[in-house]
Amino acid sequence: MILTGAAFGLQSTVWITNGALRALSQLAAPQEQLQQLQAFAVRCVASAEALAEHPLEGVEPLSAGDLHHLQDTSDQTLVF
Which of 4, 24, 38, 59 is most buried by a 10 A CB count? Predict the structure, then answer.
């Protein structure tokens, strides 16, 4: 949580990439993996196309253009 800034009350968004979304959806209880982020009011987003293939409650679908805009306007980008 410290890495997202959410622990300090900063508005944070986590972009779940297509590969990470696919891996997350294959877990036995994928929603449980997102609960900590959601508890800190972290906005979770992913490609609308990827979410159509691997739906996951609580993840906001964004178009490719919206994802690129998010990346361009972010103050900080962390890649894991």
Answer: 59
Nearest Cα residue to 24 out of 46, 2, 42, 48: 46
Is 70 exceeded by the pLDDT of residue 12? yes
- Banded model confidence at residue 47, pLDDT cuts 50, 70, 90: very high
CA distances from 40 to 22, 53, 71 (A): 23, 27, 21
The Cα–Cα gap between 74 and 16 comes to 15
The residue ranking higher by pLDDT, 1 or 6, is 6
Residue ranges of domains in the chain: 6-73
- Letter for the amino acid at 34? L
Q: Indicate whether 74 pLDDT > 70.
A: yes
Burial class (CB in 10 A: 0-12, 13-18, 19+), 6: buried
Provide the token pair at 5: 């800034």
